[in-house]
Write a structure and sequence with these properties.
One of its GO terms (biological process) is secondary metabolite biosynthetic process. This protein is of the alpha+beta class. The strands form four sheets. The protein has a 15-stranded antiparallel beta sheet that branches. Strand 29 and strand 30 form a beta hairpin.
Length: 1024
């Protein structure tokens, strides 16, 4: 059936082509309509023709072969290999049409040219823009840098068309472009190596003293014909063409000998003979330069190496020694391709695409792999670039690869027309089954469903949407003022992934990079609405203050909503932003958990303002590099850095792990950063880009050995400014530098400026970023999912406000266990003391005790105490002394806790210690309600230390009371002092009455009759 449809479609197109005589060139508009403006299916054909007559001929031919047409396979898509050609086949000057007509290619060339100029090399644009004759010699540096840059730009252009390589193969000089595309070298490093090597050749070698000779003969025949003549084997390109190198005198002698045997020879017009003895004077210096100045990474895709005649898949093979050898030793293109075929990296179905201004390697590949090898070109001399590319794209599309046709037509889309074509030739048949009844139409339309709708389901006022800004629920603009509110769900896929890309304490946390993307998005949106559109490069995300961390919940079936409100009275003065939580009823939280101000500036002015300090930043980086070489500073690889980061505090997802290496000394560090090329989501500034270039400050504060990272962790409460004067680009190389210093106002706070550099230029800065120390014991309290048990146990334990007034109503705990059963109490098998545990008394107003966890049956049983026990009050006193740093002897009952350093943070730590060491769950506000040590001890004696009721010194009390308790057996009821024993027995009786009569024990008046002959009084019938 599908073949019949395809057949009908081709016949229809044939009619369309014949009837479109009114258009000046109907094939162009037809090609645009059927490729860029139509959805493609697994049955299809592609034709490439320059004229309508050629298209008609191909259509007629395809109709005769309809039965042999096969669908495209989604699983058997052929591999794509990018191959890069050496210098010998290039013109000295070119006029590249793509540079003039393709915005993507032109942008890449201009970017690479800017890199070359920053590295100290002259501009290579004149070698590519047609401003000189093709034989004009620009010199070795410009010619070689230009060729390398064109090849890298062509690879990027193909990737924009949807064609990405699975393998790369570089020939001679062009191996640097192949290493760049494979991810081993950055574009900056590739250009730097090529240019520096060319400069060394010009300085230490005589141009024209050596040459290269291409011989159309196999290597064994050359050896037989040349005999004992002196020459070098430079390149083995295929079974026949071989390139020799040597002095011109040597080559002329070899040419004569080979000519006598009938072998054709041709000289290659290059000033310097690579892979020959001419390069010997530069090898040592070049290797040293590559070792010191270049960062080599693990390849993303396999590299076919002509030097080794093998395939490189690891990150250790390519190094400075490899680059030296590749300059001098033979380039065995034939052996490399055969080896890749032998081990299965390639097969004869691979699609080869040549990245070069002219096609050379394609002929070598067909000679090696056979005439059926598919070898495509990017550009050809004296041929229109669009024609060459269209021919190659047609072959790729016909093989089932997905081509981004819209990107191909983008440069001249304004001149093209969308044709109204006939529909597909479907074999239409009515399969509709008529439905009887109205249940499906009326279901859900009940009167009572309305009130059940959540208040959070608000109507949209704009269809604008990104991954983080999911819905605009309110906006109002007047002149230069306006306000808007957005709402997003943390449980949606993109935000959930973004939060868990920055995992702390095992849970996803909304980071400042997420807030920054939201701020940039809303900033761009509001300026556009107010008629003054501004891109984020001109924005300053200023005065970001985070009052409370936002942690993703674990239950993804329920929404977790946030709202961000942005408002301005005058857009010239900036935009105020506030982040709020939203409850299940759609009500916005009373206080924002984060605030920021978006200010407007000029990116170029920011860049200018950073120029004077650039040399200072670079000098500090050079100092750190020198210290690392001497072993004084620590250098981390990507894997080691993020492993340490994860073990200390933050576990980043892969695309957030942009730091490829870090050099750190105490509180100062720099990092080389490569942004991921992984795509996904709709962002203004992807959070994983911001995090990658900026989280070096957090790495320092949580990993450095200059302070206690084992007992503390550091998080940021915000920054003063964030400026990104140049867009952050996927796959680009950056360098971050920061030095964190203690704040003058607060010793627990460190601050610093993170400088973001690219190509020796500061392109961004996160200014005044702060990090605050917190004891690690508080990690669960601050970073637990809001729906987790840990978070609920801390719900009432927030940091108290400093102005809160103490409350003198003491909380009254009741039993948290089941009641002492009748028999258990009467026969003494259960200890009345251990049966009581603190809990909240709702009748006493706001309490300082959080709900205590339930005890197990084993915990309920009284256990023998240690030989040298300490009372609860003594243990509490020791905890307070250890956390405040005060000698325990200096703490008296009159000591005011605030005077010895028990502030809001220390009170949280002490509360955690009480919970962990004493099994007492309290709110940190307890230390405001009982401001002196004596008041706190009195409260502990009353509710937790039943053996400590008598007013005797702590030490004596421990000896007299606890020793008597420890001498009893588990089946005995200990002999407490009279008042204590009565109090304990009374508490147990009240608990029993409470459980049996289902009345609150606190509601029983003192006059309630408790007849000794009938101790269970009004509840007697419940025990029968």
């Amino acid at each position: 059936m599908r073949q019949a449809v395809l057949n009908g479609r081709r016949a229809t197109f044939n009619r369309v082509v014949n009837q479109r005589g009114s258009l000046s060139d109907p094939s162009v508009h037809l090609a645009y309509t059927t490729t860029a403006r139509r959805q493609h299916y697994n049955y299809g054909l592609a034709f490439h023709a320059a004229k309508v007559d050629g298209l008609r001929a191909q259509l007629r031919s395809s109709l005769e072969q309809v039965d042999s047409q096969r669908p495209f396979s989604s699983t058997l898509v052929p591999s794509v290999a990018f191959t890069f050609t050496g210098q010998g086949a290039s013109y000295k000057s070119s006029n590249l049409q793509l540079f003039h007509h393709s915005p993507v290619f032109r942008s890449q060339i201009l970017t690479l040219n800017a890199l070359a100029k920053r590295l100290g090399f002259p501009s290579f644009i004149p070698a590519n823009d047609g401003s000189h004759d093709k034989d004009y010699d620009h010199g070795a540096v410009i010619t070689q840098v230009a060729l390398t840059s064109v090849e890298i730009a062509l690879a990027k252009y193909w990737e924009s068309l949807g064609i990405k390589p699975d393998i790369v193969l570089g020939h001679s000089l062009s191996e640097y472009a192949a290493l760049c595309v494979a991810g081993v070298l950055s574009a900056s490093d590739a250009i730097c190596l090529v240019g520096k090597r060319a400069e060394m050749l010009q300085e230490k070698c005589e141009a024209g003293s050596y040459g290269m000779l291409a011989v159309q003969a196999p290597l064994d025949e050359i050896k037989a014909a040349a005999g004992a003549l002196n020459y070098g084997i430079a390149c083995i390109n295929s079974p026949n063409p071989t390139v020799l190198g040597g002095t011109w005198q040597e080559l002329e002698a070899v040419r004569a000998a080979l000519g006598n045997k009938g072998h054709h020879c041709a000289t290659i017009d290059v000033p310097f003979a690579f892979h020959s003895a001419q390069t010997d004077p530069i090898l040592q210096d070049f290797e040293a330069y590559a070792r010191e100045g270049v960062l080599v990474r693990e390849p993303r895709i396999p590299i076919i190496s002509p030097l080794l005649a093998n395939v490189i898949c690891d990150g250790k093979t390519v190094d400075s020694t490899y680059l030296r050898r590749a300059t001098r030793e033979t380039c065995d293109f034939l052996g490399a391709v055969n080896r890749a075929l032998e081990i299965g990296i390639i097969d004869k179905d691979v699609f080869w695409i040549e990245m070069d201004p002219h096609s050379v390697n394609t002929s070598f590949l067909k000679a090696i792999l056979g005439p059926n090898c598919v070898a495509l070109t990017s550009l050809r001399r004296r041929e229109d670039s669009c024609t060459t590319l269209a021919d190659s794209l047609t072959a790729l599309h016909s093989a089932g690869l997905e081509v981004h046709w819209k990107e191909f037509y983008r440069p001249f889309e304004s001149k093209l027309r969308l044709l109204d074509l006939p529909t597909y030739s479907w074999n239409n048949k009515n399969y509709w089954i008529q439905y009887d009844g109205d249940w499906a139409l009326m279901k859900g339309n009940t009167f009572y469903e309305g009130p059940k709708q959540t208040k959070a389901a608000l109507s949209l006022v704009s269809f604008f949407q990104t991954s983080l800004v999911q819905a605009i629920i309110h906006e109002e603009f007047h002149g230069t003022s306006g306000t808007m509110t957005m709402q997003s769900d943390l449980m949606s896929a993109d935000i959930f992934a973004a939060a868990h890309g920055h995992s702390m304490n095992g849970c996803g946390v909304v980071t400042s990079s997420i807030r920054a993307d939201i701020a940039c998005t809303l900033g761009e949106y509001m300026t556009k609405k107010l008629g003054t559109p501004v891109k984020y490069e001109h924005l300053n995300i200023a005065n970001l203050k985070v009052a409370k961390g936002l942690v993703a919940q674990t239950d993804t079936s329920r929404p977790q909503l946030i709202r961000v409100t942005a408002s301005t009275s005058n857009i010239a003065n900036g935009i105020k932003m506030q982040w709020h939580n939203v409850d299940s009823n759609g009500t916005t939280g009373p206080e924002p958990f984060a605030t920021a101000t978006v200010l407007y500036g000029d990116a170029d002015e920011n860049l200018k303002s950073w120029v004077p300090i650039t040399h200072l930043v670079e000098s500090r980086i050079e100092t750190l590099q020198d210290m690392a070489r001497k072993g004084q500073a620590t250098q981390f690889s990507r894997k080691m850095a993020y492993s340490l980061f994860a073990s200390s505090l933050v576990d980043y997802a892969d695309k957030y792990r942009g730091m490829s290496s870090v050099v750190m000394y105490e509180f100062e560090a720099f990092a080389d950063v490569q942004l991921t090329t992984e795509e996904g989501g709709v962002w203004t500034v992807p959070p994983y880009f911001i995090d990658s270039v900026a989280h070096l400050a957090g790495f320092i504060m949580n990993v450095t050995d200059a302070h206690d990272t084992a007992g503390n962790f550091c998080v940021t409460p915000g920054w003063q400014s964030m400026l990104l004067a140049r867009p952050l680009e996927a796959g680009a190389q950056y360098r971050s530098y920061v030095k964190m210093i203690p704040s003058r106002d607060d010793a627990g706070v460190f601050c610093g400026d993170v400088y973001i550099m690219r190509g020796g230029e500061i392109v961004g800065m996160v200014g005044g970023i702060q990090f605050r120390h917190y004891p690690r014991i508080l990690l669960d309290r601050f970073f637990s999912p809001p729906d987790s048990i840990a978070a609920k146990s801390f719900a009432s334990s927030q940091i108290p406000q400093e102005h809160s007034s103490p409350k003198r109503n003491a909380p009254r705990p009741v039993s948290s266990t089941a009641s002492c059963g009748k028999q258990a109490f009467l026969d003494g098998t259960r200890s009345p003391v251990s049966a009581l545990a603190p809990s909240i008394d709702s009748s006493s107003g706001p309490s300082s005790i959080a709900s205590a966890p339930k005890r197990t049956e084993a915990q309920r049983r009284r256990r023998p105490l240690p030989k040298t026990p300490k009372s609860i009050t003594v243990k509490a006193k020791l905890i307070i002394a250890s956390q405040t740093g005060i000698d325990v002897a200096e703490l008296s009952d009159d000591t005011r806790l605030g005077d010895v350093g028990v502030d809001s943070l220390i009170s949280l730590v002490i509360a955690e210690r009480f919970r962990g060491d004493l099994d007492i769950v309290v709110n940190s506000s307890l230390f405001l309600e009982y401001p002196t040590l004596g008041a706190l001890k009195e409260w502990l004696r009353e509710y937790y230390n039943y053996m400590d009721f008598r007013r005797i010194p702590d030490g004596d009390r421990d000896r007299n009371v606890l020793e008597r308790h420890s001498s009893t057996t588990p089946s005995e009821v200990p002999e407490y002092p009279g008042s204590v024993q009565v109090a304990v027995i009374m508490a147990c009786i009240l608990s029993a009455i409470f459980l049996m009569s289902l009345v609150r024990s606190q509601s029983l008046p003192p006059s309630t009759s408790l007849n000794p002959a009938n101790p269970f009084g009004p509840c007697e019938h419940l025990y029968r």
